[in-house]
Amino acid sequence: MIKKSGKGIFLGLVLIFLYAPIIILAIYSFTDATTIGGAGSFSLQNYETLFTTEELVDMILGTIMLALISAIISTVLGTIGAIGSFYSKKKFRSFYSTINQIPVINADVVTGFSICILLVVVFGVSKDTYIPLIFGHVTLCAPFVYLSVMPRLKQMDPFIYEAALDLGASPASALRKIVIPQIFPGILSGFMLAITLSLDDYFIATYTKPATFDTISTYVVNATKGAQTDIKTALWALSTLIFAIVIIAVIIMNVTASRKAVKFKKEA
Amino acid sequence: MRKFTFSRKSLGIPYFIFLLIFVVAPLVVLFCFAFSDKNGNFTFANFANFFTDPNTLGTLFYSLAVAAVTTVVSLLIAYPLAYILSRSTLKSKAVMLLIIIAPMWINFSLRISALKEILTVIEGNLAYYPFLNAVIGMTYDFLPFMILPIYNTLTKMDLSLEEAARDLGAGNRQTFLKITLPLSTPGIISGVMMVFLPSMTNYVVLDMLYNSTYIMGSLIGSYFAAYNWHGGSMIALILLAIICIFNLITGGSSEENNQGGALL
């Protein structure tokens, strides 16, 4: 009995450590207080500022656009890369996977800095073209798409593809109709992963972004150094909104997962 | 000219070229920059400067200390947590895990600024405890990355091995030390990899907590701000060397090992 409650207390303490800052901030985001711990009354001012300040809206939309563009490019590149590598000779495949592994293991600071040096310092590509930023983010995300597609290729039954060819399908259509549908869950999770990585990135963006463009991360980091109170409290509102979105996503994931489980049980 | 015929292998070419341009080439350039001066002449000066300047050397040791303490603290929190969750009979343990790793999906800068507000209330002035705050900030940021791989190995583990050990007369402690812990080392290793290296380099966490101490990443940041590409490249190269050494010690990261990372 004592042991059981001990476990519960430990779990609770970790949850408090992880969630208290976010939740306290969420509560304060609905007040007019300017510091945590200060007194304030209910107000939606922070949310109004968040949605009416052009700078903030641009920064949020820019971050989402960047994440979508780089996730789409990463998903295409990473997926065809994984397929090509999977069907290559073993030696080449392991060489391929090793290079793919470099950005995964490497520190983001080093990845961002080295891409900046190559493109901006050596080749003189202007950061204002967004090329260094987008390709930087693709470099960050594509390896993870490759990693989530590869196990699906390994699990696939190789004879279905052969059968399709025997039945007269061209390699291209066999690939489209047989291979892609089977590895699709891997492609999808790679895409989701690419989106989250791009949204969360700070380092690649700092080293490659145009001076006038900000992602949520770079903006928040600069804002915490500044002294603009209304912007600071508007960011509490942003943090609360993202928190709400994450919670809703988690609930949806749970509901669909348990529905699937119920369906599975009924069918069995 | 030979007609190009479609084959599955040729699909790999575009991404391979991409990797050569954006992964291999930048590292080659980094290497060249680290060993040259502003005029492009070969020099060991950047290398020598790093290892003779007490400031940069101090930063290296300080960031190793921050990373080591963060890793140990995260492991001490994550292992029992993952163990409790994986062995609990709760129907909802998957839900519980999801709740624990959910903060990971909130932008890290927003999470750290929330932490900063709370720490300011608790400590008054953040500048008084730079090392402690560095460790708290890094642990707060990277804890889920330690929990997830350990939880994965613990749930995949064959529980009958633990039962067998008990049947053969081993106590709880003996079973844990001789069966559970050794079998979960792959998870511990990937967790350590995912916490140790970022805590040496993620200097924004310190910046945001008004921390004036420097870790290795901060050096790259300050060289970047000063347009000192050659000095920055040397720091990046030293970091790369540390990452390589770390990978060799932990037995490299095979594709299998990193699937846990990919699932994040």
Defining traits:
heterodimer; A: 268 residues; mainly alpha; MetI-like fold; globular; B: 264 residues
Describe the structure.
- Chain A has helices spanning 2-29, 45-52, 54-86, 90-105, 108-122, 131-155, 158-166, 171-200, 203-208, 216-225, 229-267.
- With 268 residues, chain A is mostly helical.
- Chain B is mostly helical and 264 residues long.
- Chain B has one domain (53-263): MetI-like (MetI-like fold, Orthogonal Bundle).
- Chain B is 74% helix and 0% strand.
- Chains A and B meet through α1, α3, α4, α5 and α6 of A and α1, α3, α4, α5 and α9 of B.
What is the third-level CATH name, the topology of the domain at 57-225 in chain A? MetI-like fold
Major sheet characteristics of chain A = none
Q: Tell me which protein chains meet in the greatest interface and how many residues each side has.
A: A-B, 90 and 84 residues
**Radius of gyration of chain A (Å):** 23 Å
CATH architecture of the domain at 57-225 in chain A: Orthogonal Bundle
- Secondary structural class of chain A: mainly alpha
Indicate how many domains the architecture of chain B comprises. 1
Beta fraction of the residues of chain B?
under 5%
> Count of helical segments of chain A?
11
Query: What percent of residues of chain A are in strands?
Result: under 5%
What coarse outline of chain A follows from CA principal-axis ratios? Answer: globular
